[in-house]
Amino acid sequence: MSEVLNYDNSAVVHVAPNAAMSIPAGELQWQVRYGNVTKVRYVAASCLASYAHLIGADISTKEAIRRLRLLRAAANHRSTTTRNEGEK
Question: In terms of pTM, does the model score above 0.85?
């Protein structure tokens, strides 16, 4: 595993050829640069909390993998359902 530290001590981990994922330094935060924040604030906060929980030390790797598999299955089901509804 290769890791590159950025100026703010966040890390970029290369997970596959031409693919990298970031690990933030400290707490995750988000900032809306344009648009209406009320439409996305809870979704954004929830996504950040989920990500922080998956990479944190308060659950085991096995449990993080289990939860990630559930999220992926739900996302795949959702995209398939949305795609099928568009074909009607």
Answer: no
